[in-house]
Write a structure and sequence with these properties.
The chain has 20 helices and two strands. The protein has helices spanning about 1-15, 25-45, 45-65, 70-90, 105-110, 115-120, 125-145, 150-160, 165-180, 185-195, 200-210, 210-215, 220-235, 245-260, 270-290, 310-325, 330-335, 340-350, 350-370, 385-415; strands spanning about 95, 100-105. The chain has a two-stranded antiparallel ribbon. A hairpin with a 2-residue loop joins strand 1 (about 95) and strand 2. It is globular and about 60 Å long. The protein starts with a helix and ends in a 26-residue tail after the last helix.
């Protein structure tokens, strides 16, 4: 019995399968994975379903995007829009002073926070992308036989269609506030903040209308204009109103850089590197030795604003931003291959003007509603310390939530009732044969 038992054991030992680390037991591993999936589903069925739904929706958007579309362009536009929104939310304060609200900025009492404006003042990137898209779109329109008037009308309608809703709402709101006894200072502050983003649209619309004349303009020419205007203003005591020439010339610089991008003159990394290093060095020299403010946005009470109107320092800073944007094109293209990332960028681009036009309204709606609970830190208090900064950061998700409500209510104004997406081709099966005429808008 002992020998038989030993022999049996020996035989079993020699015929026993190898350990799992040598030859995996596929059936057992598959069963284990299945049990883990069932366990995960039991633990969070709603979360799992939501995640799967998000992936399916992202995959549909990714598949519906024309293969010829440069997704880095859309990513840069989304970065520029979100940068402006976050910048305004971080440096705009509405201080409750008695029965009124007045505008203030943390940069006034904490100038060491100026680097915040270096990160979130991204208008130059928006004008760079705008110049690139407009010149490319105009060339495509001419190739299709579309007239200048038809092309311009289509572009401007996309810009100004959402404006009517903002103007209507704030006209009614201002009238109701005045009729109910609100102080004129408060109403003026609110309306000014709500409508302040529109100056940008007017400048952008003017440059868009002049696109046929700007397709070959070298960015050096408007840069020279800005240089001479600032030299006359700050060096020879010329009238301050002369600075408003820079409102067009200053933003012409990144816009014409976008046209140069279309012409293929900025395809090499060397171009982006030169713009980044040259713009950074020039801006640092102007701030350190020429007396320009370090903040790239306006600060209440400051003698000089780099943004209103644009100064030479703002323009050289914009050159550095454009250089960085050009260097980021390839990394962004790689990142946009991920369906979920691309879906988020596509959605921002589809509602870019709605987000831009309503973000200040979201801030003010939150501020006004919060007054019902008293003076809340980071919302109604003076922005003069780190405690205000910490409190304001905590309010950002609330601003985003209110902005999402504005987006849900007014996004149809931007789309104008059209079902066709401007970023992806909806309700059409993805096909490579249909992407040859894809347009960048």
């Amino acid at each position: 019995m002992t020998e038989v038992t030993g022999t049996t054991r020996t035989t079993r030992t020699t015929t026993r399968p190898s350990p799992p680390h040598a030859t995996p037991n596929r059936g057992r591993d598959a069963a284990t994975r299945q049990r883990l999936r069932r366990t995960a589903t039991r633990k969070g069925p709603h979360r799992t379903a939501a995640r799967q739904g998000l992936r399916r929706a992202s995959a549909r958007i990714d598949a519906a995007t024309p293969a010829s579309r440069d997704r880095a362009v859309d990513a840069l536009r989304a970065i520029a829009i979100l940068g402006v929104v976050l910048g305004h939310w971080l440096v705009t304060a509405l201080v409750a002073d008695g029965g009124s609200l007045r505008a203030a900025s943390p940069l006034q009492d904490m100038p060491w926070l100026s680097p915040i404006s270096w990160v979130f003042q991204t208008l130059a990137v928006f004008f760079l992308v705008g110049g690139h898209v407009a010149t490319r779109g105009y060339a495509s329109a001419r190739a299709r036989g579309t007239s200048y008037g038809g092309w311009l009308s289509a572009r401007l309608s996309r810009l100004f269609r959402p404006v009517a809703a903002v103007l209507s709402l704030w006209t009614v709101t201002a009238a109701l506030l005045l009729l109910t006894g609100a102080e004129f200072v408060t109403v003026h502050t609110l309306v000014k903040l709500a409508l302040s983003p529109m100056w940008f649209l007017l400048v952008f619309a003017a440059l868009t209308a002049a696109t046929p004349l700007l397709t070959r303009l070298h960015p050096l020419w408007p840069l020279v204009v800005v240089l001479h205007v600032d030299l006359l203003r700050f060096g020879f005591g010329a009238p301050s109103w002369l600075g408003w020439i820079n409102l067009a010339a200053g933003w012409l610089v990144p816009y014409t850089l976008g046209a140069a991008w279309t012409r293929g003159e900025l395809d090499r990394r060397r171009a982006g590197g030169l713009l980044l290093t040259g713009g950074t060095a020039a801006t640092a020299a102007l701030v350190a030795w020429a007396g320009y403010p370090a903040s790239m946005v306006g600060v209440p009470g400051a003698e000089v604003s780099n943004l209103n109107p644009p100064t030479l320092a703002a323009v050289t800073f914009g050159l550095a931003q454009c250089g960085l944007a050009l260097l980021l094109r390839e990394p962004l293209r790689r990142a946009m291959r991920r369906p979920v990332t691309w879906a988020a960028v596509a959605l921002v681009n589809l509602s870019a003007m709605t987000i831009f036009l309503w973000h200040q309204t979201a801030l003010m709606a939150t501020t006004a509603t919060g007054l019902l609970a008293g003076r809340l830190p980071g919302l109604h208090t003076l922005p003069d310390g780190l405690d205000w900064v910490a409190a304001r950061l905590a309010w950002l998700p609330v601003f985003a939530f209110v902005l999402a409500g504005c987006w849900a209510a007014f996004r149809s104004c931007e789309r104008g009732g059209r079902r066709r997406s401007r970023v992806v081709r909806t309700h059409r099966p993805p096909s490579r044969t249909r992407t040859a005429g894809a347009r960048h808008v």
